């Protein structure tokens, strides 16, 4: 073999607008406006839809219909699907058409693309349930495989996913995690004994070298392997025969048309790849669920710390690496009890939208090896501008929350400012 497991993450945040100190107490519309000209949320979604999502969907639909052995999987953030319902029903229909082929698996994740597992288990579970509901409502599917925001993973998350009935969980196949082992096998996470006689969940690890050849290096003319053709890439997969069972190619869906432009040949590459891979009769395509049914776990992988698929460090430092990020995260999650006590739908929705990980990513000050990545559709002039807008919004949000607390009869509450 090996089998090829193709997975695409699809997400666009609701970015916080340029929110000034003078807006506090006056403006409660934190997200969609024109303060960023062409970088407001609606325009960004339209741009990426036209350049990447729609042409990629059209191509994949024809490929899925043409090739009976071709299969793919997606993970959609709930907040992305929410925007499709409001701004771009045509794009939503095109994703639904892909799923209707019966050859697309949808994965589970947090609705708001948040880091909530590491800050509030109760909130995390609420967001996973909200995500489950929107996937059922829009696609009629019940996800069986879990994928956390930015592939953020550790043993504790795997234990949670196991106890909640998932058959597999995705993670980065990072060298420090694997040691001498290959990402091209199925593994078990190190979760010790499991309760209630449940089967142990399986762990699918991204082959980051081959995935990043497509996602990041495809159009890099200084790369020694440029130009990357489908024939060349298939030859690399074929070399794994005998030393691996599954190649997990995980990447952002914006790879096709946005990160890598049509003019550089990325759609031609994608169109040709399945046929080139399947020229070798030992190769086949599988979804994550099919992968764990097809292959046994070959070893146990221990990940006691958090590993992600972001930046050169593969940790949470892209979101929590400096003091302004830590302050923003601390402040938003400190409000959880108050938010849920007031039982106000709009307050809860705004609070959850403010948890989206992109807000903290835009505050990152790592402007060295990973700087260009952090500029992608970042509407702020600097990380500090992102922090200032976010904290101004949070101060307005606290005022709203305090007012709602005051209105509750027979309850005396302290100010949360």
Can you walk me through this structure?
The chain has helices at residues 41-66, 78-87, 89-100, 121-139, 155-163, 175-178, 208-215, 230-238, 266-278, 288-294, 317-320, 323-334, 336-342, 345-353, 358-361, 371-374, 383-407; strands spanning 3-10, 72-76, 104-106, 145-146, 168-172, 188-189, 202-206, 246-252, 284-285, 300-301. By secondary structure, it is α/β, with parallel strands linked by helices. It has 2 domains: 3-301, 7-stranded beta/alpha barrel (Alpha-Beta Barrel), CATH 3.20.110; 318-407. Strands 1, 2, 3, 8 and 9 form a 5-stranded parallel beta sheet that branches. A 3-stranded parallel beta sheet has the order 4-5-7, sandwiched between helices. A two-stranded parallel ribbon has the order 6-10. Strand 1, helix 1 (41-66) and strand 2 form a beta-alpha-beta unit. The longest helix is centred in the first third of the chain and has 26 residues, at 41-66. InterPro entries: GH57_Enzymes, Glyco_hydro/deAcase_b/a-brl, Glyco_hydro_57_N.
Short key terms for the protein model shown above:
alpha/beta; 7-stranded beta/alpha barrel; 417 residues; 2 domains; 17 helices; disordered C terminus; single chain; five-stranded parallel β-sheet; three-stranded parallel β-sheet
């Amino acid at each position: 073999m090996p089998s090829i497991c193709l997975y695409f993450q699809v997400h666009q945040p609701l970015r916080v607008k340029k929110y000034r100190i003078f807006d506090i107490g006056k403006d409660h519309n934190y997200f969609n406006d024109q303060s960023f000209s062409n970088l407001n949320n609606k325009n960004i979604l339209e741009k990426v839809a036209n350049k990447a999502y729609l042409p990629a969907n059209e191509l994949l639909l024809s490929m899925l219909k043409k090739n009976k052995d071709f299969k793919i999987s997606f993970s959609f953030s709930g907040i992305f699907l929410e925007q499709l319902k409001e701004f771009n029903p045509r794009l939503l229909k095109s994703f639904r058409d892909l799923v209707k082929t019966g050859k697309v698996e949808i994965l589970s994740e947090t609705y708001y693309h948040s880091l909530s597992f590491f800050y509030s288990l109760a909130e995390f579970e609420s967001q996973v349930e909200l995500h489950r509901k929107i996937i059922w409502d829009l696609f009629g599917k019940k996800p069986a495989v879990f994928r956390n925001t930015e592939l953020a993973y550790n043993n504790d998350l795997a234990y949670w996913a196991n106890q909640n009935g998932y058959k597999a969980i995705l993670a980065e196949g990072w060298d420090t995690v694997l040691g001498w082992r290959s990402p091209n096998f199925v593994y078990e996470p190190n979760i010790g004994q499991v309760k209630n006689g449940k089967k142990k969940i399986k762990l699918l690890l991204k082959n980051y070298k081959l995935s990043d050849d497509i996602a990041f290096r495809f159009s890099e003319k200084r790369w020694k392997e440029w130009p990357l053709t489908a024939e060349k890439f298939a030859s690399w997969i074929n070399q794994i025969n005998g030393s691996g069972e599954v190649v997990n190619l995980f990447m952002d869906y914006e790879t096709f048309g946005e990160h890598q432009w049509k003019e550089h040949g990325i759609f031609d590459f994608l169109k040709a790849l399945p046929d080139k891979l399947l020229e070798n009769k030992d190769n086949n395509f599988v979804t994550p669920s099919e992968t764990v049914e097809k292959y046994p776990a070959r070893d146990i992988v221990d990940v006691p710390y958090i590993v992600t698929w972001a930046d050169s460090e593969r940790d949470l430092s892209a979101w929590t690496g400096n003091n302004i990020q830590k302050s923003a995260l601390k402040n938003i999650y400190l409000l959880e009890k108050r938010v849920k006590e007031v039982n106000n739908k709009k307050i809860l929705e705004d609070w959850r939208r403010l948890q989206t990980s992109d807000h903290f990513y835009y505050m990152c000050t790592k402007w060295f090896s990973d700087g260009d990545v952090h500029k992608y559709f970042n509407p702020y002039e600097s990380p500090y501008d992102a922090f200032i807008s976010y904290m101004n919004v949070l101060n307005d949000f606290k005022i709203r929350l305090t007012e709602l607390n005051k209105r509750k009869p027979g309850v005396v509450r302290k100010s949360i400012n």
